[in-house]
């Protein structure tokens, strides 16, 4: 990470203005460090890796990045939007102590977060067998910015070392082998999340995804009704993908929806006058991609104020011939 140069005190001599001379205005250099990161945890993912996580800084703290230390040794530098990292190349059956410091634009470093200690498990003989998937997953919103995810235990011939929680195909949290529930923080109000859980063993073999579960966080105070399309579904048939959903309550007819495929905006679905669905909406897409292509699809509605609303749940489908 490139550290910004310290801000220099800038003094401007102002003379001859309304007869006032010798007036000097100075900007004070920023020497105040941001607060230390909170919520630091470290979880062994295998005999040679540890997953380190912490809570994101508040916007008001002006954090531009984080530095991750093992004991007194700097091991990773990350931008402000990253609040987790895998530290690899470690030794089996060894204790490690991790801490994190926040950095602001002026190069000020926070104090270290309270240390997180972890011991890597023993190395196993060569293991190419992945664990089974967690058989069931449930989840519920616990507030506008948090949710609780619960899963059933997986099995593995050499033992489970971690459970990884994914959202939209991206790992966002890691829990210990003895855990079956976790609370996810830092979510957005009025947003649909689709969570899956994978089990991992000591050789870093990951299971397939367990069952996907949708959670809709409630709007924050004053946000009004939810803006995400509800009960979104996607079905593949030869040469066609059919999308269905229930329109959000926007206070009027919702005529435009933006479709995302594999994380990228693909098209805007428009319903003309007299064709706006009053209940369930349906749209069919003709596809030319080969059979077996995997799509991750989601959409969002155009609100009366012209902004886009929150995304629907994301659905993964495999195209068929």
Can you offer a commentary on this structure?
The chain has 321 residues and is an all-beta fold. Helix content is 0%, strand content 47%. The chain is built from no helices and 24 strands. The protein has strands at 10-14, 23-27, 41-46, 49-53, 63-70, 73-79, 84-87, 95-104, 116-119, 137-143, 146-151, 160-167, 170-175, 181-184, 192-201, 213-216, 230-237, 240-246, 256-261, 264-270, 280-286, 294-302, 308-311, 315-318. The strands form seven sheets. Strands 19, 20, 22, 23 and 24 form a five-stranded antiparallel sheet that branches. Strand 3 and strand 4 (49-53) form a beta hairpin. The protein is globular. It starts with 9 loop residues before the first strand and ends with a strand. Residues 1-25 have low confidence and may be disordered.
Strand-helix topology:
Layout: E1 10-14, E2 23-27, E3 41-46, E4 49-53, E5 63-70, E6 73-79, E7 84-87, E8 95-104, E9 116-119, E10 137-143, E11 146-151, E12 160-167, E13 170-175, E14 181-184, E15 192-201, E16 213-216, E17 230-237, E18 240-246, E19 256-261, E20 264-270, E21 280-286, E22 294-302, E23 308-311, E24 315-318
Antiparallel strand pairs: 1-2, 3-4, 4-7, 5-6, 5-8, 8-9, 10-11, 11-14, 12-13, 12-15, 15-16, 17-18, 18-21, 19-20, 19-22, 22-23, 22-24
């Amino acid at each position: 990470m490139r550290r910004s140069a310290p801000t220099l005190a800038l003094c401007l001599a102002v003379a001859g203005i309304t007869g006032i001379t010798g007036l000097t205005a100075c900007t004070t250099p920023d020497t105040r460090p941001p607060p230390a990161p909170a919520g630091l945890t470290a979880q062994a993912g295998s005999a040679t890796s540890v997953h380190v996580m912490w809570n994101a800084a508040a916007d008001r703290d002006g954090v531009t990045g984080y530095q991750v230390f093992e004991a007194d040794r700097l091991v990773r530098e990350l931008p402000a939007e990253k609040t987790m990292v895998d530290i690899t190349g470690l030794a089996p059956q060894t204790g490690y102590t991790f801490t994190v410091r926040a950095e602001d634009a002026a190069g000020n470093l926070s104090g270290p977060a309270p240390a997180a200690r972890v011991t890597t498990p023993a190395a196993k003989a060569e293991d190419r067998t992945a664990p089974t998937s967690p058989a069931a997953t449930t989840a519920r919103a616990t507030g506008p910015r948090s949710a609780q995810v619960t899963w059933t235990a997986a099995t593995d011939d050499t033992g489970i070392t971690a459970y990884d929680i994914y959202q939209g195909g991206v790992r966002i949290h890691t829990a210990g082998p003895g855990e079956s529930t976790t609370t996810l923080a830092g979510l957005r109000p009025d947003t649909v999340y689709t969570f899956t859980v994978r089990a991992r063993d000591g050789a870093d073999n990951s299971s397939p995804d367990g069952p996907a579960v949708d959670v809709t966080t409630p709007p924050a105070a004053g946000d009004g009704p939810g803006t995400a399309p509800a009960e979104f579904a996607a079905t593949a048939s030869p040469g066609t993908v059919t999308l269905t959903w229930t329109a959000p309550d926007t206070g009027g007819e919702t005529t435009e929806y933006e479709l995302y495929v594999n994380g990228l905006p693909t098209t805007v679905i428009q319903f003309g006058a007299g064709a706006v669905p009053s209940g369930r909406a349906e749209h069919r897409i003709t596809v030319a991609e080969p059979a077996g292509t995997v799509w991750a699809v989601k959409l969002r509605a155009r609100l009366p104020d012209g902004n886009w609303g929150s995304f629907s749940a994301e659905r993964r489908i495999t195209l068929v011939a």
